[in-house]
Amino acid sequence: MAWLFLAAAAAFEILFALSMKYAEGFTRPLPTVVTVVGVVGGIGFLTLALKTLPVSVAYPVWTGIGSLGTVLLGFVLLGEPLTWPKLLSALAIVGGIAGLKAASA
């Protein structure tokens, strides 16, 4: 169940990051509300996951998945460039997350 909480936390983290872009400095009300929901949901579900997962694994996984999702959706939704350095950096994040997960077993 903790991993499901962590997945939900990561989804809210991605929502938070993307909605900040749409909020345009908190000048647009609806995206601003979505940003706040993303923050509360992300931290709330992360807190639930941390009841059983070690923080040394859960927090990096949360931020890593949030980063990867934001990079990919920034490309898809916002038309941001997806360069080779970005792709290689994203692969490094995946490798780090996999290593942390393997080390926690």
Gist?
The protein is an all-alpha fold and 105 residues long. 84% of the residues lie in helices and 0% in strands. α1 (2-23) packs antiparallel against α2, α1 (2-23) packs across α3 and α3 (55-78) packs antiparallel against α4.
Radius of gyration, taken over Cα atoms and rounded to an integer in Å? 15 Å
Q: Cα distance, first to last residue?
A: 16 Å
- Helix count, per DSSP? 4
Question: How big a fraction of the residues is strand?
Answer: under 5%
Characterize the largest beta sheet: strand count, sense, and whether it forms a barrel.
none
As for the number of domains, it is 1
By DSSP, the count of extended strands is 0
Give the helix proportion (percent range). Answer: over 70%
Instruction: Outline the low-pLDDT stretches.
Output: none
Element string (H = helix, E = strand): HHHH
Q: Look at the structure and give the mean pLDDT.
A: 93
Form type: flat
Derived from helix and strand composition plus strand pairing, the structural class reads: mainly alpha
